Amino acid sequence: MIGADLRLVPAKPYRDPGNYVHVSSRLAEEMGAVWANQFDNLANREGHRQTTGPEIWHQTAGRVDAFTCACGTGGTLAGVAMALKQRNPAIRIVLADPEGSGLYGWVTANDLSVTGSSITEGIGQSRVPANLEGVPIDDAEHIPDAEALDVVFSLLIDEGLSVGGSSGINVAAAIRVARKLGAGHTVVTVLCDGGSRYQSKLFNPAFLREKGLPVPPWLN
Hints:
By secondary structure, this protein is α/β, with parallel strands linked by helices. It contains eight helices and four strands; from the N terminus they run H-H-H-E-H-E-H-E-H-H-E-H.
């Protein structure tokens, strides 16, 4: 839309030289461009440590009991975790993970094995990005697509919020954490993607049926 030179590459694991992270690195070197390297550039999490984390602390007046969100680059969870734990080590940090990602197993059992798959985009990893290294994470929640979709549709119908799959994963995990903590606790997450980006998937009955996922009555 704004004249960018967009290079589409096949989905390949990180160990493959054709993985988009490696491709972008080579392109930047060839073109003499700046390579953001968002997964392993610690400026990513540092930005959230300096801004998002303090914002959450101030807007809750320090009354926050847990924070949860999914990880793509890991920057949001890592930076917020570092900021909140610095202010109150008792705050629980919970990583939300879709199926087909190894981060849930990494947090709970130090095992990056991957099983299943997910229709969500931009979150989940088969490796630990540098942004997540050394970060205080207390627990993780494994959220299947069907559970995330229920939340996406509920947020739209009941709250008037049109969000995407990553936000659905985040809120589903926040609900789980809230139920475990019990009444009277404050659990924070982020709505990181809008629903308009997923019209051909999350809001497409044919796509949902093809994937064996629930289709809400109002979408039929």
